[in-house]
Automatic annotation (TrEMBL):
It comes from Streptomyces cyaneochromogenes. This is ABC transporter ATP-binding protein. Residues 19-267 form the ABC transporter domain. GO terms for biological process: D-alanine transmembrane transport; L-alanine transport; L-isoleucine import across plasma membrane; L-valine import across plasma membrane. GO terms for cellular component: plasma membrane. One of its GO terms (molecular function) is ATP hydrolysis activity. Keywords: ATP-binding, Nucleotide-binding, Transport. The lineage of its organism: Bacteria, Bacillati, Actinomycetota, Actinomycetes, Kitasatosporales. It comes from the Bacteria.
Amino acid sequence: MTTASQETPRQAADAPPKLHADNITVKFGGLVAVNDVSFTIPDRSVVSLIGPNGAGKTTFFNVLTGLYRTTSGRVVLGDKDITNLVPHRIAGLGMARTFQNIRLFGLMTAEENVKVAMHSQLRSGPFHTVVRTRRQRREELQAREFARELLDFVGIGKFADEYARSLSYGDQRRLEIARALALRPSVLLLDEPTAGMNPQESARFTDFVHRLRAEKDLSVLLIEHDMSVVMQLSDRITVLDRGEKIAEGGPDDIRNDERVIEAYLGKSGRGKSA
């Protein structure tokens, strides 16, 4: 019998849903950015959302995380309906994300950037903070230890006291992930995490996501243009084009899907690999 720790990616894809989006439609005036898209993330899986520029991927991400409201449809995280909740409530229920454009506090240290994400989890009120009670000091120490643990996990522990703006591009990406993990999410959304990375950095990132899923017991949703990363990481891939879902399946299914090839390469690309 296969244990949870021995579970393969394809087995994980058959697990119960961790997140389900049902018939999501998003309209901006007369523009339909996402049209009737349903989407499921199984527990402890890595799922990728791909498509040409303008396909609606980031809009869909923004709906899941509460930055955009749906025109119609429903989003369920675990057993909770999170449709159109504000972002901080969705984060508190177990969904965290990174952004395509890095959003760090440049003049705060790496450790401080991670601790910012823990604010909603701290219980010491203004009195405890001003007086610096034993409770507040204990909580502050625990936050510092957890932040350092996360920085070590993502591989930048030695830079804990460095300003975020002084880190390399790849290390800033890792810091963003550490900050997202500080929310203790069950679902982590990564928006083009390898953008700007060289092939060696992308390969290390691929290994890191495998470890992230295994050691943090997470489901991961990935928007990514590097198809080698997508194919290596994904249990399942969903393809959007012009706001509509045109394909869904395993990497081999998507690689050979005629609709996907046409969306990326045009009709002249038929027969080539996606």
